[in-house]
Amino acid sequence: MTDVFNTHKAYNTVEHEHLDMLVDRASGNYPSSGLLVVGCADGRWFVEVDFGNDYNQIDGIAKPRLTPFVEPRFFLNEEAATDFAIECIKVVHPELRDKDLHALLVE
What we know:
The chain is of the alpha+beta class and 107 residues long. It has one domain. The chain has helices spanning 7-10, 20-27, 78-92, 101-105, and strands at residues 13-18, 34-40, 45-51. A 3-stranded antiparallel beta sheet has the order 1-2-3. A hairpin with a 4-residue loop joins β2 (34-40) and β3 (45-51). It is globular, with a radius of gyration of 13 Å. The mean pLDDT is 95.
């Protein structure tokens, strides 16, 4: 671990959504790690670790607190990035594999 890589500056981010409450709604337990779905000014989207270490083993996620920093996987729209984030959540939280997490996003 080292200084935090500033993804917001590097990728000119303009919006983000926290998904930790999604896990909380689905499981009834606040997670020890959280993800963000982040939008860039150029229309790309990516998934970033907001806090914790549970997602460190999953490729394609921005992990700004780890070195060396590895570029995240970029998506063409928010929906695709959210789909990827939900796949990652279900890897870390296998008890949620049968839950429709998309349905909880609209609450």
